[in-house]
Design brief:
With 102 residues, the chain is mainly alpha-helical. The chain is 62% helix and 6% strand. It has a domain of 71 residues. Strand 1 and strand 2 form a beta hairpin. The protein is elongated and about 65 Å long.
């Protein structure tokens, strides 16, 4: 069994593009969660009666719901099928909204 350097070099641009997308998604998620946390903390510090209850409900749902169940309530990707290239291989199947698309 030989190591295929040609295959590694041929897939390296796609891999580096995927790393960039992964980092972008991570930074967006971290920024969004910090913004939500800051808003929730501000509501709790100023003790707004009704909003404080909503923040408490949000925290309880986030803590007591398994992550797999939370994934069912996340919106599908923002990318449309038009953005996929024509050379999409069967190995790169994308799931959007619970439907298999290739």
């Amino acid at each position: 069994m030989n190591f295929d350097y040609a295959f590694i070099l041929s897939t390296l641009p796609a891999f580096l593009k995927a790393v960039g997308v992964t980092l972008q998604v991570g930074f967006i998620a971290i920024g969004t969660s910090l913004l939500v946390a800051l808003i929730n903390a501000t509501i709790l510090v100023f003790r707004t009666p009704y909003l404080q209850r909503l923040v408490g409900l949000y925290v309880e749902l986030a803590r007591n719901t398994p992550r797999l169940i939370q994934l069912f309530f996340t919106p599908p990707r923002a990318t449309s099928r038009k953005e996929l290239s024509d050379d999409t291989k069967p190995e790169s199947v994308i799931v959007e909204g619970g439907k298999w698309q290739g």
